[in-house]
Design brief:
The structure is a homodimer. Chain A has 14 helices and 11 strands. Chain A is of the alpha/beta class and about 350 residues long. In chain A, strands 3-2-1-4-5-6 form a 6-stranded mixed β-sheet, with helices on both faces. The longest helix of chain A is centred in the last third of the chain and has 19 residues. Chain A starts with a strand and ends with a helix. Chains A and B meet through helix 2, helix 7, strand 11 and helix 14 of A and helix 2, helix 7, strand 11 and helix 14 of B.
Amino acid sequence: MHYKLAFIGFGNVARSLALLLERKRAALKEKYNITYSVTGISTGRHGFAVNPDGLDVQKAMDLKNITPLSTLDVKDSLDVIRHSQADVMFENSPVNTQTGQPALDHIRAALELGMHAITANKGPVVHGYRELTKLAESKGRKFRFESAVLGGAPVFSVFREAFPLAELSSIKGIFNATTNIILSRMENGESYENAVKFCQSIGVAETDPANDVDGWDAAIKVAALVTVLMDTPMTPQQVNPTGIRGITPEMIAKAKAEGKRYKLVCSAEKAEGKVNASVAPELVDSSSPLYGMMNSNTGVALRTDVILDYSITQSEREGMRGGPEETAYGLFADFVNAVKLDSNVS
Amino acid sequence: MHYKLAFIGFGNVARSLALLLERKRAALKEKYNITYSVTGISTGRHGFAVNPDGLDVQKAMDLKNITPLSTLDVKDSLDVIRHSQADVMFENSPVNTQTGQPALDHIRAALELGMHAITANKGPVVHGYRELTKLAESKGRKFRFESAVLGGAPVFSVFREAFPLAELSSIKGIFNATTNIILSRMENGESYENAVKFCQSIGVAETDPANDVDGWDAAIKVAALVTVLMDTPMTPQQVNPTGIRGITPEMIAKAKAEGKRYKLVCSAEKAEGKVNASVAPELVDSSSPLYGMMNSNTGVALRTDVILDYSITQSEREGMRGGPEETAYGLFADFVNAVKLDSNVS
């Protein structure tokens, strides 16, 4: 089976994906009998290219502007999707958590044209999960987004494949690395301000760390998990997060003396069809699966009717978590899992 | 799609599975359009029954001897398999870790007849994985065993579904609950002897605890994981385990004072096609994902070329871990995952 691929957005994650696909080319062929070519690329600032016979991806990565590679006249991402004749569209345009655009439109267009649509973007998950899933089903295609939450720690595919017909009653986790690093470093005596600076220096926090420290990044991840795994649409606003600015060194020292620690705990509980979700600092002790998640480690604990407590942790060296390579692997896994169903190979 | 099921072995796990199937009957129909009937049951001491039109499972659970339920003359498990006309065979006969029998013969027979074969038994995984997988493939059927290791914490399906084409280089975990409870209780000052007695009192350790405390239970689990996930046949003898009898209260107190603790660590490393596996007590500190696994908690950390460190933990109340309900759910998940491919529903 040969698959034509379109890359909408061609930043670090998409480029890592292109390299990973190349590295796994022989294995794809050997294990799944999958071959591929890239037939469309849309970049943010370096032009657009379509060639239904296949583009030279290495050249596209080297060029300042990729337009000369194109055999067709294309002017925007929707043009690329329409003319690429792709079977699979990877959506990696910039995230907009408020509206999910332009990713929503790209995914709609791809699914309408009968492509599988795969993204690492939380926006369209929170803003379009039900609509896009329904559209995908009606076309016999897949809308997949493994890397949208906990990039590098598969949770959507794990729940889908390892927990058939399980009823999820509780999600509890640490979803934001920046705040977890800050709290870990404060436990070792560093000031809040210096811990924030450290996070900025290793590239995990932005110049304005509000999105992390006020809990909004965690809240959109909670909203995405609830929307998908609990099949209950939820927005970050409904999660209404509390961040970590109120946690003082004194509070942390007192907790430590009692064998406890503060974590920015994300949680969602489903009971009688209703979901209560929150993001807030909580004291946890060593009996909690969250207690051992320090620094950039993140993870999630799931409680179901069939398996009581199952937790997934991603434990990595600082600064490496959620790197583009791991996010790219989530997209790659989504691709393999979507197309292996076409050829009915398990 | 209607599936006929045969139960070979009808102890606690198989009975839990029968109850779980009944509880999920409506959901199976609604989500996957799957219906089922039980057409064969083989018990250890209460007879055999086959009825290709369906047996009354509730009656089979209530009866002292199920032979009167049979519409055919059957005398042993192989007869039940042959005459049940089943599509799926659940193998739950007593475990023999030395030879894998009689489970191996049951699974061979079922696959030869074109059934999916599903077991929670480590024996046939260690002694027959390659042969049975090949046989299953040649018949277009599945040989599945999610509950054989870490029952209640899916690891085989997680690796199969969420890690396509990942190269696994390291497995590290705590696979034996009994020794973990003993070490946890010794850390709280209890003697080895009393900790063993406690484990016996809650039913997790046998009268002779040797299989657990000398590391053999952990070793066969390592062998099964290496055999399947690293595609390298391995026996428990090759793992050559060291148990926990050599760990003294003094050693544990000294470790605790240094912020460390002893764990019976299971590990396997693959490099250049060669696997080194071991089971032995090791000192771990709080940076290890194993540090927080106390009492009956078990788990495994996987390192791959695409996702660096991913760990799965099962954290439960004492005495509940690996109960028959959770083992049964692994068999149930194997069933759904095997047959959903028949109908090509994802």
